[in-house]
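Below is a filled-in request sheet from our internal design queue. Each sheet records the structural input a requester submitted and the sequence that came back. We keep these sheets so that new team members can see what a complete request looks like end to end.

REQUESTER: design group, bay 2
PRIORITY: normal
MODE: inverse folding
CHAIN LENGTH: 311
BACKBONE (tokenized):
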């Protein structure tokens, strides 16, 4: 008889706000892949990025972007770990050093929103269009400061570039077959990890504020961003199935091993979010926000903006 997961277990897949809870879950999955895996580099990088978000990393103030926050990075990290497990047990074996690269890249893919001490103007969202290159700069300094092999930085740069929305993977110079696979895993985790979040639709309000600060997207209001999210989802599915190689399907192998069922809970959660989005955007615009009730995000957003500016 299949050990069908409870609704609580399924919802907990997307509850990744606490790094002290996330790391043990990730480590347990990694040990299923490689029982003798050496966690030292990956764990240090994980802890250092958490410190960076919290403002405890030397030379940096806390990362204050509302959408691209620590829970977002942890969502991507956990999705990447589950996906690399699915890829591995599906027959494409991953070496220990490749898993280290995946975990480091997932944790560092958005560190470009971090601001140096003395650079505190704005929230960091003004770096929306340059955050990938800024993050790569941070990563290169980090590898050097931690006295890690320089070739690690070269590979991490290629993998992190695969998360850049403006970058075609086919256009990344010197992206070999194996590094492409690792980039596809992290790039897929970046998209599926955030869109499967049960509060994804509510968090789009935070994304709207980031885009406003960055002067990016030219959205007139949050309703326009919500209406355009269905199109973004369709473009994202094309990217997932295209240059990202349809690798998201390997998540089903992970859940088959973990729960004994072949569901792809990430894809199911994304589709539920988009179905609910369709209901929201079918209403009169004045009712949009009343349909977004999770996490108190609407109230938090309204407290940050001028009255009536979200509609």
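RETURNED SEQUENCE:
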């Amino acid at each position: 008889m299949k050990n069908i997961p409870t609704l609580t277990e399924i919802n907990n897949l997307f509850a990744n706000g606490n790094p002290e809870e996330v790391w043990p879950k990730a480590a347990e999955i990694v040990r299923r892949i490689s029982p003798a895996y050496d966690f030292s580099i990956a764990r240090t990088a994980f802890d250092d990025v958490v410190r960076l978000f919290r403002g405890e990393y030397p030379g940096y103030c806390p990362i204050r972007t509302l959408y691209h926050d620590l829970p977002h990075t942890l969502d991507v990290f956990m999705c990447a770990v589950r996906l690399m497990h699915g890829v591995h047990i599906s027959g494409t074996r991953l070496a220990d050093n490749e898993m280290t690269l995946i975990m480091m890249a997932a944790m560092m893919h958005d560190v470009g929103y971090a601001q140096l001490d003395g650079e505190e103007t704005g929230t960091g969202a003004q770096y929306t269009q340059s955050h990938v290159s800024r993050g790569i700069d941070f990563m290169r300094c980090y590898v050097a400061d931690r006295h890690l092999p320089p070739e690690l930085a070269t590979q991490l740069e290629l993998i992190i570039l695969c998360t850049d929305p403006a970058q075609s993977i086919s256009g990344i110079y010197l992206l070999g077959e194996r590094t492409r696979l690792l980039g596809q895993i992290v790039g897929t985790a970046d998209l599926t990890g955030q869109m499967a979040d049960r509060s994804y639709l509510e968090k789009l309000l935070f994304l709207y504020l980031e885009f406003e600060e960055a002067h990016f997207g030219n959205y007139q209001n949050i309703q326009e961003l919500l209406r355009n999210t269905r199109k973004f989802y369709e473009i994202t599915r094309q990217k997932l199935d295209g240059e990202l190689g349809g690798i998201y399907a390997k998540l089903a192998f992970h859940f088959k091993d973990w729960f004994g069922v072949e569901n792809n809970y990430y894809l199911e959660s994304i589709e539920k979010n988009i179905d609910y989005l369709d209901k929201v955007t079918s209403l009169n615009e004045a009712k949009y926000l009343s349909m977004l009730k999770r996490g108190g995000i609407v109230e938090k957003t309204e407290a940050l903006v001028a009255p009536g500016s979200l509609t």
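SHEET NOTES:
- Residues 7-304 form a domain with the Catalytic domain of cyclic nucleotide phosphodiesterase 4b2b fold (CATH 1.10.1300).
- The longest helix spans residues 70-89.
FILED BY: M.R.
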